[in-house]
Write a structure and sequence with these properties.
5 helices; about 120 residues; mainly alpha; two-stranded antiparallel sheet
Amino acid sequence: MDEFDFDMTTIRFPDVISPGNEMFELFGSKAADEKGSNNAWGLKDPAVDKLVGNLVSADTRAELVAASRALDRVLLHKYITVPHWFSSTHRVAYRNRFGIPAKAPLYYRADPYVISTWWEEKPR
């Protein structure tokens, strides 16, 4: 993987609430020249670099969404990856001795939010 010498692999992209600078490491041309970078496919494309720059420099949520969708369309068109797993729910197993909040905030990553808000219920 560090040498970009493979035919096929499975990669899980980290969850992000809002995409940002990590997109340079995943899709930027500069990262393709760095041994062991997260640009596993060695993608070098000035158009992708420009789209990532637009995404990172977005000033509003609308600009961020538009830039993200534009980048997504270009990356999908290149067929560099085959999405093969998605779940719209988070599954967290826990013992019933823990209390958890009844309602979570609208935007959060499930694992750090849930785990950071657990408390141990005292036996009654």
